[in-house]
User: Fold these one by one.
Assistant:
Number 1:
Amino acid sequence: METRELIDRTEIADALTRYTLAVDTGDWDALDTVFTPDAVIDYSESGGTIDAYPQVKAWLAEMLPAFSSKRLHTLGQISYAFADSADEAEIVAYFDNPMVISDGAGGERVVEVGGLYRHTFVRTPEGWRSRKLHEQVVWTRGF
């Protein structure tokens, strides 16, 4: 493996971490360092929206805090498949996402989603950015 590919893998892994931290902490503007302005995001498998990044960012900022008061992603294995140009990569990252929601009786309960984040990352002047995300739900618990 070439040094450039090792650096690219690290930069993409950092972007994935920035994504989960932004979602978990509600720092929606930090998502600007993860996605291209024209990215398409598909959260339909978890009951969410499919739209362009600016609309999904606004949707997340409105809907996610209303749904869950606390979120904590864990990322696992990451698969990297670079295009011949080395300026694009298909990324698959395992995730586990427990969230705290209201139990409807004044308390809280934990629900959980596990699956695969399927990204298309592209090299930009600002670094690696996702231009496409499909959240593939493999399992849920507690819903």
Number 2:
Amino acid sequence: MILDPLVRFKDAHSKGIIPDDVYDLTLKRFPITIAGINRIEKASGIRYPVAYVEPSLVISSPNPNSYEYGILFARTIPVVFEDKFQVVIQISAPLVAYGLKGTIHAILAHEFLHFLELIRKISKMELLSDEISGNLFENVYSDETRLFEPRVVFKDRTLLNHITKKFPAGFRDYKLEDKVTKFWIDRNLPKTNISLDSNTVKLPADALSKIKLDPAFVSKIEQLEEKSSKIRKKKLY
């Protein structure tokens, strides 16, 4: 499944859904995203999963009747495509257009940690087909359950600073949210609403059983898990 990461975004523009000014700005700033992915690969020694730009703003609410909502700037989504399992990182166009470099890179790194967590669960057979919770993969940026310590995974001090500043206890970037409200929501540009309690991703059990993971990759994840748990224990005592 090799595709142009901007294919859906370009399609939305050609249909007149995305205006020219937003299209041009997103394309102009897209290299920041590519640089972030390259940086994460270099800092971790692991390939980044397939990523693409979603031409809508993804908004989640705890329930359909709630006026509260959160913006999901990126999501880690497990999919089965032509009988092959794949993890896809969905990056929202507003993040690319309006996020600062440090914010974009921190969010990409955060999704990468979710990707590692997903692969870890599959390798340990901890994942049941009907138990893939929306809360985990439709990422509300809650870090309490995260297994991998960023400083174990990434050998890049600046990137680590971005992550710890942006995600001390859940992600918030008020300047980015203000920009997105003004330049995206107020202009009635595309939005996707998801309800976190109903939004579970289901992978067929037979697809899960067929997943083949590279043994070297699984071994690397086990090493990262072990180092992370040692750091966690040090924090506890």
Number 3:
Amino acid sequence: MPLPSFHMIEAAPQPVAPFSHACEVDGWVFLTGQMPTQPGAPDAPLPDGIEAQTRRVMDNLVIVLEGMGLGLENVAQARVFITDFERDYAAMNRTYLEYFAEGKLPARTCIGVTGLAVGALVEIDMVARRP
């Protein structure tokens, strides 16, 4: 089995901790969880509300996927972490759903957590597969 390759995507937001944007091994691409931070402006305030933060997170994931030569159609699995499950679950789902073609939803887990880095309301990571 080949060794993993580690990728930093120039257009993506700077990591908030020591990690790569993506790691690839044997055609599988593991995307680090993205925060609702703005590419090129790591100190900018986070967007207000779960919808805006989910949109920014998904846009950041698309940037990483595109930097790897992939798209959301290549995503096999996603994990969503939200800090206020009861309040934000439905609204997060509505926004998340906007990003995928009808009937082409990856497997997914959604987990309520007590906190996320940078005070975010949502973080999403993904696993994609090269065709």
